[in-house]
Amino acid sequence: TYYRHHRFVPHYRYREHSANTENLLPEAAQPATPTYPVIPEVFHPAPESLHPAQEPDQSPEVAPAAMVHALAPLSRGKVFYGVMFDAGSTGTRIHIYKFIQKDPVELPVLDNELYHAVKPGLSAYKDTPEEGGNTVRQLLKLAQKTVPEEEWKQTPVVLKATAGLRLLPEDKANALLDEVREVFAESPFFIPKNSVSIMNGTNEGILAWVTVNFLTGHLYSNTKRTVGILDLGGGSTQITFLPKSQSLTPNNICLRFNMFNHTYQVYTHSYLGNGLYAARLATLGALRADGKIPVFTSSCLPKKFQEDVTFGGITYKVSGIPDGYAGYKLCYHEVMKVIKGIVHQPFEVKGSSVFYAFSYYFDRAVESGLIDGSRGGMVEVRDFKKRAKEVCNQMTKFRAISPFLCMDMTYITCLLKEGFGFKDNTVLQLAKKVNNVETSWALGATFDHFRNLNIH
Ligand SMILES: O=c1ccn([C@@H]2O[C@H](COP(=O)(O)OP(=O)(O)O)[C@@H](O)[C@H]2O)c(=O)[nH]1
């Protein structure tokens, strides 16, 4: 499961590490006292390691060839680690990244990632925060098994929560974060200041863009091309891409940040409440319920289906419409209400770059048989639509895979077409991992920890 070819040039200034990536202060505002002199603060790409013939857009899943030559000497390099927790609305995940730096003038390399996920997410423990803390404690044990003991004190451990905690009342979210802080405090790792926080949606979108463009080789290639990202979580969804023409882009919706000696200005938007699970509840009308409706129904569900559904620690009774109609058209009409007026179409998305789609885009494409789960693959927006129609119009056939498959596939189709304005023939590259590393904001956030990206 290892991948070991990502090369960086280290920067040999050290400073105190602030994990507060929500407060990305300009470099000058950082404290000057060196208190953590072990891990290189700044990573740059290795220009000499780039393969000029490499055209990442043509083989997006393949690492630039020249990165691979670092394989042999790796075992003798200086090793360092970074641990990033993703506290998502539907699960908590740990990413343990191992970097190797052969010698001070050589380039640190991302050697591999160890990834593990548990369900449910922290927000399910909103009334029992101690239990929530325990899930993090269990995952930290994995870090202790993976990171050699002599590295524990230098290895930063950071947790960032996303939509699940954003959607909770502040006191409930804070109680969970405080529990995690206690768990971290008793751990043998390096716990930076502000290591436990709720990340804002903007940073979530940008850091996922950084991860995917790094893993696909676009950040340090000579080509100016990059790929866009589409992330569909349980509670929120993000779209991030580099607009073709900066001049047409109003500054207020584009963000700048520095990475590998470049300044990027990307369009990013996070829609809270438009993640897949939140959208299910919105489609069912459960979110604006006043307590009088005992069962929430939808024509997106099999007629005879009835079940309790839990999201964010709340349980709802849901069912199909027993003597009504079910099917794609009615379902599309229902999910349209959730999209309309919430998601706006970013200009320029039409004909823009290739988009990588992951998280629930990937999971549902696999479940519905659009792509192979181990290989991922390219689909067009119209493929989601076609498969959504098939699933919705033969619900009994797909019932065993998931009773929500019709609703989810229709929502994804509607989000892509009506929400973001993608054309039927827009190509999406579906991937769970690129070069064996999870496509998630977590790697970007780890870079951000080691080298402040100065997002503004
Ligand atoms: O490293 C990761 C992190 C997340 N996911 C997937 O991404 C979705 C994440 O949704 P999440 O619960 O984080 O939702 P959010 O809180 O972002 O709305 C789920 O399908 C996860 O399986 C993944 O495949 N790899």
TrEMBL record:
Family classification: Belongs to the GDA1/CD39 NTPase family.
Catalysis performed (reactions): UDP + H2O = UMP + phosphate + H(+); GDP + H2O = GMP + phosphate + H(+); a ribonucleoside 5'-diphosphate + H2O = a ribonucleoside 5'-phosphate + phosphate + H(+); CDP + H2O = CMP + phosphate + H(+)
Catalytic residues identified in the record: E204 (proton acceptor)
Gene3D superfamilies: 3.30.420.40, Exopolyphosphatase. Domain 2
Cofactor(s) the protein needs: Mg(2+); Ca(2+)
Family annotation (PROSITE patterns): GDA1_CD39_NTPASE
Keywords of the record: ATP-binding, Calcium, Disulfide bond, Endoplasmic reticulum, Glycoprotein, Hydrolase, Magnesium, Nucleotide-binding, Secreted, Signal
Principal location: endoplasmic reticulum
Localization: Endoplasmic reticulum; Secreted
Binding site for ATP: G234, G235, S236, T237, Q238
GO MF term list: ATP binding; nucleoside diphosphate phosphatase activity
EC number: 3.6.1.6
GO annotation, cellular component aspect: endoplasmic reticulum; extracellular region
Domain of life: Eukaryota
Pfam hit, one: GDA1_CD39
Statement: the UniProt record of this protein carries the keyword Calcium: yes
The protein, known as: nucleoside diphosphate phosphatase
Subunit structure: Monomer; active form. Homodimer; disulfide-linked. Homodimers are enzymatically inactive.
InterPro entries: GDA1_CD39_NTPase
Function: Hydrolyzes nucleoside diphosphates with a preference for GDP, IDP and UDP compared to ADP and CDP. In the lumen of the endoplasmic reticulum, hydrolyzes UDP that acts as an end-product feedback inhibitor of the UDP-Glc:glycoprotein glucosyltransferases. UMP can be transported back by an UDP-sugar antiporter to the cytosol where it is consumed to regenerate UDP-glucose. Therefore, it positively regulates protein reglucosylation by clearing UDP from the ER lumen and by promoting the regeneration of UDP-glucose.
Biological or metabolic pathway of the protein: Protein modification; protein glycosylation
